[in-house]
Design a protein that fits this description.
Layout: E1 2-4, E2 12-15, E3 18-29, E4 34-41, E5 50-53, E6 58-62, E7 67-70, H1 74-78, H2 91-101, H3 142-150, H4 165-182, E8 188-190, H5 191-194, E9 198-201, E10 204-215, E11 221-227, E12 236-239, E13 244-248, E14 253-256, H6 260-264, H7 279-289
Parallel strand pairs: 2-7, 9-14
Antiparallel strand pairs: 1-10, 2-3, 3-4, 3-8, 4-5, 6-7, 9-10, 10-11, 11-12, 13-14
Helix pairs in contact: 3-4
Length: 296
């Protein structure tokens, strides 16, 4: 089922040993349009710290109660690596979090002996609570993997292999150096950041981003909810990220492969009704715009 992202903003987060804060935002990658992290504001129990957690740690989501349960303790969260949420998230920081929490990475990896691979891009969200020992080996982007291989540390596992402190220090140092040397392009964005972006069809503006529809199992963002404003008397329409042709992060603009006439005559979404998007509606939507469905 698809859920509106803002329906979970403010949801309470429950650790194994008690409540630990609420969801403040969701971060997604702009290649796969999949939620990679939820930003949690810890609340008064721990000095209002903001932490970044992968959906892999979620044990259960009770949508009706706006509550989320994670397989972490309060101490684990309290002692997590510090992040400056005012700055862009780097791959190095993601590696540090993955190493600390022992959760799987999601980015594609090169086939390097001893490092392992997780499969296709966008993979890597495992069933909540899955033991680390049952997960595939840790991934490192091909650019970094190649560089690590050349340093003769390719047999060191980033997460699961017990190595000496010296080897761990060397691995961490090489990962940092490789990431900096390769200058990897890496883009993680928050849904709050994108909310309000202008949406333009091929022949003119159609409105602005109002919300996001997320698949509750895969955490894929399947649709942007667009507020059309006065152009269509306040009507809201759905646009798939797959139909986006260009995004200007500096100008806060999104361009889609559709005309204003297509948007105007698209199957109507009623936000005041059940708000549920079923497969029949999705099929009609894709047929109207002339794009193949994502589920086949």
């Amino acid at each position: 089922m698809l859920r509106r992202a803002y329906g979970l903003i403010g949801a309470k987060i429950h650790a194994i040993d008690g409540e630990m804060g609420h969801v403040d935002d969701f971060y997604f990658d702009d290649l796969e349009w999949t939620v990679r992290y939820m930003i949690v504001r810890t609340g008064s129990w721990f000095s209002e710290k903001q932490v970044m957690l992968s959906p892999a740690v979620i044990r259960d989501v009770v949508w009706e109660e706006e509550a989320m349960y994670v397989d972490l303790t309060q101490d684990q969260v309290k002692n997590s690596p510090d992040l400056d949420m005012e700055k862009p998230i780097t791959r190095e920081q993601e590696m540090e979090l993955a190493s600390y929490y022992r959760w799987p990475t999601y980015w594609p990896a090169g086939a390097v002996t001893g490092i392992g691979t997780m499969g296709a891009p966008g993979a890597g969200i495992f069933p909540p609570g899955a033991p680390v020992a049952d997960m595939p080996g840790t991934d490192v982007p091909s650019e970094i993997a190649t560089d690590i291989f050349s340093t003769d540390i390719s047999n060191a596992s980033l997460l699961n292999q017990e190595v000496s402190n010296t080897a761990e220090t060397k691995t961490a140092a090489e990962l940092r150096r490789a990431a900096q040397a390769e200058g990897l392009d890496h883009y993680i964005h928050g849904i709050k950041e994108i909310t309000g972006y202008h949406i333009a069809a091929t022949d003119g503006d159609i409105g602005h981003v109002d919300d996001f529809f997320i698949d509750e199992e895969s955490w894929q963002i399947n649709y942007l909810l667009v507020e059309t404003g006065g152009w269509l008397t306040g009507r809201k329409v759905l646009i798939s990220p797959k139909w986006i042709t260009e995004i200007s992060w500096t100008d806060s603009d999104v361009r889609v492969k559709a005309t204003r006439e297509q948007v105007k005559n698209s199957p109507e979404y009623d936000p005041h009704g059940t708000g549920i998007i079923d497969r029949r509606y999705e099929s009609d939507l894709h047929t109207h715009y002339g794009f193949p469905p994502y589920w086949v």
